[in-house]
Amino acid sequence: MTAHFPTFLNFKLPPFFYWIFVPSLNGFLFALRTTIAACLSLGIALWLELDSPIWAPMTVWSVAQLTRGESLSKARWRIIGTLIGGTAALIFVGIYPQAPWLFFPLIALWIGLCSGLATFVSNFRSYALVLSGYTCAIICMDVVPHTDNIFIFAVSRASYIILGVLCEAFIGLLFAFNQDRLAHLKIRQKLESALTLVADTLYHILQQETGALTEARNLFGTILAINDQIEFAEVEMGAHGHEGDHARAALAAVSALLSRSFGMAARLALLSDNHRDFDTVVRAFIQFLRTFSGRLGKEEETSELLAELQHLRDICRRYATPHRQKLVPASGMETHTQEQETVITNSALDERILFSSLGDLIGDLEEAITEYHASTHTIRGDHFQFRHHTHRDGRLAFNNGFRAALAILVTSLIYEVTAWSNGNTLISITALICGLFATKENPVLGTVKFLKGLAIGWCVAWLLCFIFIPMVTTYEPLVLILSCAMMIGGLARANPATAPAASAFNLLMPLMLGIQNHHIIDETKFYNTNLAIMLSGVTAVLIFRSILPFDSKAEGFRLRRATLRELRNLANLNSTPQISTWIGHSTDRFSRLIRHATVMTPVVEAGIQGTLATLTLGLNIIRLRSLLNREYLPESARRPITLVLYHIEHAYRRHDRAARLTRAAIRRLRELDTQDHEAIIRLEITRALTYLVVVEHTLRTNEDFLDASRPFLGTGFSVFPGHEPPHEVALEKA
Q1: Chain CA centroid to CA 427, Å
Q2: How open is the CA angle 159-65-179, to the nearest 5 degrees?
Q3: Cα three-residue angle 503-499-509, rounded to 5 degrees
Q4: What per-residue confidence (pLDDT) applies to 310?
Q5: Residue range 500-535, pLDDT digits in tens
Q6: How far is CA 365 from CA 69, 310, 331, 390, in A?
Q7: Residue-level pLDDT at 44
Q8: I need a labelling partner for 600 at 20 to 30 A (CA). Which of 41, 353, 618, 627 fits?
Q9: Is residue 659 within a helix (H) or strand (E), and if so which, with residue range?
C-alpha cells in the first residue's frame, strides 16, 4: 500500500526519496526504535533537570546501529571511552588550570595519541579510543570558564552518556525477538554462504574454466565482511562458548583454501597433463563439490562429508608417494640385475606433484568444515581461541594522530586570539569530527558528506527553533515535533546513499536546538553556537584536505612495499613465520586496496591480482620453510631451496635471479627424485617441488609488482597461467 501512495497522488517521486516513502522494514524499525529511545532519554534528562539534557538523545543516535550486536558493542565501548576521556580531563585541568599555552597543546597531544592508537585496533575498540580523545576535549572546553567545577562537569558528561546508552539498550531490547537464536543462525548462514561460494570456486578452478581465479579473488572481500560481523553476532548471543572463535578459524581456513587454489590453478596449467589416475580422483572431488552446497546445512551429513574428504585425501597421499618403475632393457641387450636403475618419468612426477597439491587443498576444506561444525553448537569444556591478525600501519597512525592534533591547535589558536565566546564550542566539535574521521583511510570524502549533513541539520534546527518549538511549553508536543525530524533522520541513516550525511544530522542537530528545562535558545545564542558548529565542519574538511591528504596511488604504493617487506622477511631463515599471520595481514591490506578503488581501472585490477599472487607466493615460502625445519630433506636438496630463499629475501628490486635459481632448484630436485632415496625423502622432495613450481611461476610473471623500488604501473603482469606476456618463456620441465 505504501509503495503505491505516490502513484495514487499522480506524483512522480524522484528515486532519491524512495527511502522516505518506501523504506525497508529494517530501516523503518531502526528509525522508530532509535527515535523512541532518543525521546525517552530527553524526557528523563529534562525530568532530572540536568544542565545539558540534549546530550542524552545525542548519545542515543551516536550508539544506535542497524543491528543489535553493533549497537550493544558500540554502547559498551562508548562507556569505556567516556570514562577514560573524563579521567584524562580531570588530570589535564588539574595539571594546567591557568596555563592555556600548555593546556591546549596537552589536549592536542592526547587527541593525537588516541587517534593514532585507534588505527591499530578494529571495530568499536577504535571508536572507544577516539572517543576518549574528544570526550576529554569536550569536558575541558565546557569547564574552561569555571575550572573549579571540573569534577561536576565530568560526572555530568558521564551521566548523559550512560543515560543515553541505557535508553537505547532498553528500547532495543524491546524490539529484539529471539536475539540469541537468530545470532547463532546468522553465523551459521554466513559460514554456509562462504563455504558454498568457495566450493563453487574450486569446482570452476578444477574444471580450468576462464574467470575462475577472478571469482576466487572476489571472495576475499566477502570473507572479510563476514569476519567483522561475527564479533557483533557474538554480542547478540549473550552468554556463549567459543562458537565465534571457531567461526573465525573456519574463515581463516577458507582464506587459506582460496590462496591455495591460485597455486593449484598454476600447477594444472604448468605441469604435464593426461594423468589418468589424477583425472579420476579430480572427477570424484568435482562430484563431491557439485553436491556440497545441498549437504552442508544438514547436521547428519557433516560426518559423512568429512569421511568422504578424508578418503579422497588418503588417495591423494597414496598416489603422491613415489612408486618405482623398472626399466625394461631393449631386446638383444644384456644387462645385469644389479646394474638396472630405477627411475620415474617426468609425467609421473608431475602427477605426484598434482596429487600432493590436491591433497593439501582437500585438507584445508576438511579443516574449514570441521571448524564450521564446531561453530554451530556449544562444546562443553571447549577452550579454543582464535586470534585474527591485522596489518598495523605505523605511517597511517602517525598521519591520523598528527592531523587530529593539528586541528585542535589551530582552533585553540583561533579561540585565544579572537576571545570568541563560542570558541570553546569550535574546539569541542572540531575535536569530535576529527576524532570520528581520524581512523578513516580517506577522511576527506567522509568529512565533506558530514559537512552537508551539518548544513541540513542547521536548516532543520532553524525551522524548529523559530517556528515550532516556541509554540509549545510541555514535553509531549515537544517530543511530537522532534520525533518527526528524528524519524526522517533515522530513515536517512538506514539508507546507504544518505547515511554519511544523516550521521551528522542525527548527531548534532539536537545540539543545535539547545533545548533546556526552563528556557528556549535565543537568536544570538542560536547563531553563535551553530556558527561554531558549522565552522568546525569546515575546519575539519580543510585540515583533512591540506594536511597529509589522502592519495590512493601513494597509499597503494606504500601498502605494496609493506607487503613485499613482509614477504622478504618470510624468506629469512632466522624468522618464524606463521600462515595465519601472513594471511591476516595480506587479506587486511587487500581489503584496504578494494576500499580505495573507487574506479576499477586496469592498473587497479592488476594491483589487486598482484597482491593475491604475492599472498600465494608467501604461503608457498612458508611451506618451504616448514620442509626445511622437518629435516627430512637431504643436504643436496636443502642447498638449492636455501639459495632460493636467500635471493628472495635480498631481492629488493629485480627478482629475475631468484626466478632463475628457482628453475635450477626444480631441475635439481627432479634429478634427486630419480635417485635411490627412502620413500619419506622422495615424498618431501615431491612436496618441495609442489611449492617451488608456484614460487617460480609467481616470480616470473609478477616482476614489476615485486619491484618495491617504484610504483606499479600494471605492466609485466599475469596471474593466470598460460596468459603470460609474449616475451616470457614457459616453465622449464627438464
Answers
A1: 32
A2: 100
A3: 30
A4: 92
A5: 899 999 999 999 988 887 777 788 889 999 999 999
A6: 29, 10, 50, 23
A7: 92
A8: 618
A9: helix 656-673
State whether residue 325 is helix, strand or coil.
strand
Q: Are 527 and 81 within 8 A, CB to CB?
A: no
Q: What integer pLDDT is reported at residue 491 of this predicted model? A: 92
| Per-residue pLDDT, 594 | 76
Task: Of 691, 465, 460, 411, give the one whose Cα is nearest residue 570.
Answer: 691
Q: Which stretch of DSSP H or E encloses residue 72?
A: helix 68-95
Cell numbers that stand for 678 in this block: 627412502
Radius of gyration of the chain measured on its C-alpha atoms: 31
Listing DSSP states for 92-143 in one string gives HHHH-TT-HHHHHHHHHHHHHHHHHHHTTS-HHHHHHHHHHHHHHHHHHHHH
User: What DSSP state is assigned to residue 722?
Assistant: T
DSSP 607-658: HHHHHHHHHHHHHHHHHHHHHHHHT-S-HHHHHHHHHHHHHHHT-SS--HHH
As a whole number of angstroms, the distance between CA 402 and CA 361 comes to: 46
Sign of CA dihedral 153, 157, 158, 159: positive
In whole angstroms, what is the distance from residue 555 CA to residue 297 CA? 41
Please tell me what DSSP assigns to residue 382: -
- Residue 597 sits at φ, ψ, to 5 deg, of -80, 85
Chain segment 461-479, per-residue pLDDT in tens: 999 999 988 888 888 888 9
Q: State the Cα angle at 531 between 530 and 533, rounded to 5°.
A: 60
Which stretches in the chain have pLDDT values below 50? 1-11, 324-345, 717-734
pTM, rounded to two decimals: 0.80
What pLDDT was estimated at residue 574?
86
- Kindly give the interhelix angle for 55-63 and 68-95, rounded to the nearest 10 degrees: 130
